[in-house]
Amino acid sequence: MDTFLDALSAAFALIFAGDADLLQILSLSLQVSLSAVAIAVLIGMPLGGLIAIRRFPGRQVLIVVFNALMGLPPVVVGLGVYLLLSRSGPFGVFGLLYTPTAMIIAQVILVVPIIVSLTRQTLDALWREYSETLNSLAASPAQSLVAVLWDARFSLITAVLAGLGRAIAEVGAVMIVGGNIDSVTRVMTTAIALEASKGELALALGLGIILLLVSVCLNLFGHGMTRLVTNEATQ
Amino acid sequence: MRVKTCLAASSKVYMKRLIPGPLGLVFLTMLSLGFPSPSSWSEEKPFITLASTTSTQNSGLFRHILPRFTEASGIEVRVVAVGTGAAIKNARNGDADVLLVHHKASEQKFVADGFGRKRHPLMFNDFIIVGPDEDPAGIGGGTNAPQALRAIARAKALFVSRGDASGTHKRELELWTIAGTDPSAASGAWYRETGSGMGAALNIAAGIGAHTLVDRGTWLSFNNRQDLAILVEGDPRLRNEYGVILVSEDKHPHVKTKEGGAFVDWLLSNAGRAAINDFKISGQRLFTAME
User: Residue B227 phi/psi, 5° resolution?
Assistant: First the structure.
């Protein structure tokens, strides 16, 4: 129990002191994970939407594959991205290993399947309702895609938040491709792993509490925005 | 009909509400963070990548010495701390400019294979065998490491092995060989291979009341010892020597030979040696620079 109390006091001490290291690590965590989610949304939502509204051979296989990829182990993704970005790998010349960019690439790979699968599932239902109307209006696939994505935009916030949860909480991939370098690629989860390995359990848990608080804030923001806009829409 | 009005209304809503919905959430947060922030993304300062071990990082040595080098040279040192085996692998792949690890035979092979010009002996401390203070194997106060390992095996007392091809793990295996005992048959029984860094292995040993081999630097700075105590120390076979190697530009032309060389030279200079020697935790020196 002592460790839990120490962890709480460590967390509050760090927050109220506005610890410079903490702010830097936290802001890098948010930059990496939010960028990864933004890119994954740009890739995953159109892709998930197309899978929902189009019928093509291999569609069921694709759905199963994306669903399965939601369970990709971060450490495997980290290893794969490491081998690609290593100086001995095919993209080594860009010198991206051990940079935040490498961490974003790894997290995009982790988040895209979640966005694709959840978007596809959300739009499946909507498409059953809309397909006849849109077809009778002779809407092009692109127009149909925009229309269903637009109408589902509030439900899709859940997909974004699920992706963000995956990105901000994972440690396996960013540890390998980022290297947990102080002030360069150290994020909340790798800092927690480091402090735990130094036996600073209270501090590690304190950092965990702070990460959880940030996650709650992001989710409140997403939730609040959904409520705000849907309330306006129904008035 | 709903869809049609929706399509028509889209553009208006778009203007009015600054892209609400999922994209809005992402864009707003990115804007508020000022993405991409120049300070942490651009590379104003020259830097080198140092592949090193968890034992040196966990001890806090780098936090103590690197700012001094950066102040003197203007070169930032980015440390990637993994086990010695993984650090050497990273350097072989060309993903580091300088290698600082602690397994002499592997370091010499690295140089012999042409990946480094020269191995410089840098500093040393020693390994110790720690275990539960009630001392189930009766090895407390001993100075003979292989004998202690034999006693641990005989008593079937718990032993945590790093199991990660790190320098500490390789040394542990060498000590088992000298002891004439093969613990691998007992893997999962009293011999627990964890495949983790030094600190994580110590956490496990503390958690289950097991013995383990640890470098003194990590031990002194480790903060979760619980019932663990030093049982065996002072065996000359427990000497722990670190070497530093500049990765060769023959194999990897992109290696920052100038900056990396400056770092190696500084470490071996009087200023570098003094920085290593005056790193202390509660009055105890953790590493001694070599003459």
Answer: -95, 10
- Rounded to whole angstroms, the Cα distance separating B125 from B128 reads 10
Alpha-carbon Rg for chain A, nearest whole angstrom, is 20
pLDDT one-digit tens code per residue, B258-275: 999 999 999 999 999 999
In a domain, A204, yes or no: no
pTM recorded for the entire structure = 0.85
Q: Could B25 and A225 be called an inter-chain contact, meaning their C-beta atoms sit closer than 8 Å?
A: yes
> Residue B12 — pLDDT band, cuts 50, 70, 90?
very low
A95 touches chain B (CB under 8 A): yes
| Rounded (to 5) percent helix, strand, coil in chain A | 80, 0, 20
Closest among B98, B105, B90 to B62, alpha carbons compared: B98
Q: Hey, are the CB atoms on B225 and A179 less than 8 Å from each other?
A: no
Q: Quick check: is A215 in a domain?
A: no
CATH of B44-124+240-289, one of 1.10.1760.20, 3.90.1150.10, 3.60.21.10, 3.40.190.10: 3.40.190.10
What is the Cβ-side half-sphere exposure of residue B37, based on CA atoms within 13 angstroms?
18
In this structure, what token pair is assigned to residue B13? 């809503």
Residue B9 predicted with pLDDT over 70: no
Q: Where in chain B is the domain with CATH 3.40.190.10?
A: 44-124+240-289, 127-238
- Mean pLDDT of the A123-131 span: 90
Q: Which chain B residue is nearest to residue A178, measuring alpha carbons?
A: B80
The domain in which residue A174 lies consists of 21-187
Total domain count, chain A: 1
ipTM over 0.90: no
CATH of the domain at A42: 1.10.3720.10
CA of B255: which chain A residue's CA is closest? A87
Question: Domain B127-238 - what CATH class?
Answer: alpha beta
Show which of residues 103-162 on chain A sit within 8 Å of chain B, judged by CB atoms: 130, 133-134, 137, 143, 146-147, 150-151, 153-154, 156-157, 159-160
B chain contacts of residue A198, beta-carbon cutoff 8 Å:
58, 199, 221-223
